What we know:
single chain; alpha+beta; 26% helix
Amino acid sequence: MIHVRSPHMMDGYWEDSEQTAEVLRDGWLDTRDVGFLDEQGMLHLVGRSRDVIMVNGEVCHAGAIEQVLASHPLVAQAFAVGAPDPMTGEAIHAFIVPAGGEPPDENELRELVGKHLSVNSQPKTIVLVVGVPVTEAGKPDKRALLTAAAPYQLSRDQPH
């Protein structure tokens, strides 16, 4: 979770004390972003704390899944998206931008997620992509990824 503090921070949400109380605590603002600092002190955003996928009734955080997948040496970027699934309620679909050269092994990536997170957090599908569409705000457009890959995913679904 990323928290920030500044003399120029907001006072709260307009006429929404409940949401204000959720994000402002002890002078800190919870940005609702998930990230990490690298060895050089650079902040990397990996997702949103409220970006959750419900698999078999379990709350699976997309940001945590993306962080684990991106820790693999053959992965440059990773994105996790939930989509309706008749067996599990929702299923996790991962999109991987390879770090170059050899693509990562799908089963190895699933095992990596299972080692660090729950079995339900393992992606049902893993699709290799060369780039990621972005929204007008410049953020990764996960819905566009899911929409573009839907026909491919249906033919590559893997059981949990």
